[in-house]
Amino acid sequence: MKFHLRPILSEMKEFYLKPVSGQRFEEYLTKLQGGTKGEMKLPISGFNPMAKEHIVAKIEELETIEAETIIEQVIAEFNSRMDNPQRYDFQVVLNIADDLKGGWTNFYSTDYESKFKISGLIARNFCSPYFWTSEKYTEQLVNLRTKEYLYRTLYGISNSKPKTLQDHIEQEVYVVKNTINDPSLKHNLKFEEIHDYYNKNRNTEDYSLIFNFLYGDVASVNLGYKQYGLDDHTGFNYVRHIALERMATN
């Protein structure tokens, strides 16, 4: 199994330097679909085709820290650890989602889709690490984010699309166990209370509850979903606790 970087930054920078227009949107669709409606030739759906000039500055930030070189290094190390006899040839294409000024990009729903709705990407042998225009890019961030999406893809190859709350949590526990860079850091979490809540709801397939457990009430209010009284990113903080516990007992 091999993963390879498919560079995208210079191409998208050139694209965004063109005037915002219907022609630019059509060019985006051609890049994405390759001329076949509904198909995916290049996984760039995280990019907003009508984004304003600030996206160029964010691309240049990534270029300044040589983000794609970092990604290549992460991929090389990742590939060296693979011992799966199955043959896959995955292209890794970073995406920059515009949660800062993008009118149609909601951070929470887009983040969820980038992590849990990746079966279509996997079927086409793509892996897409997501970055956000609201973020300050660092070498450490690029390194960790790339690893996280590589391991999500690897997990998705052997596991079906997550349906239950437990499916979602198990995927992310796998990711954290393989990418955690500082086990000493712990989040402020009422663990026993959240653990009981999780156990009561682990088999649910109710999207609103699963989404709320992962992202909390603020995210649910933002999207008009039902709230369950949970703090911001409760589920991901819970995942970290579970991952650390399992690592300590193995």
Walk me through the structure.
With 250 residues, this protein is mainly α. It is 55% helix and 6% strand. It contains 12 helices and 5 strands. The chain has helices spanning 9-16, 22-33, 54-64, 67-80, 107-116, 119-123, 139-158, 165-179, 191-201, 207-215, 217-223, 234-249; strands spanning 2-5, 89-92, 95-97, 126-127, 130-132. A 3-stranded parallel sheet has the order 1-2-4. The chain is globular and about 55 Å long. The chain starts with a strand and ends with a helix. The model has no long low-confidence stretch (mean pLDDT 93).
Strand content: 5-15%
Global structural class: mainly alpha
What is the overall shape?
globular
What profile does the largest beta sheet have? 3 strands, parallel
Radius of gyration, CA atoms, in whole angstroms = 19 Å
What is the tally of helical segments? 12
Number of DSSP strands? Answer: 5
Distance between the termini: 26 Å
Query: How are strands sequenced across the largest beta sheet?
Result: 1-2-4
Extract low-pLDDT stretches.
none
Helical residue percent?
55-70%
Averaging pLDDT over every residue, what do you get? 93
* Order of H and E elements: EHHHHEEHHEEHHHHHH
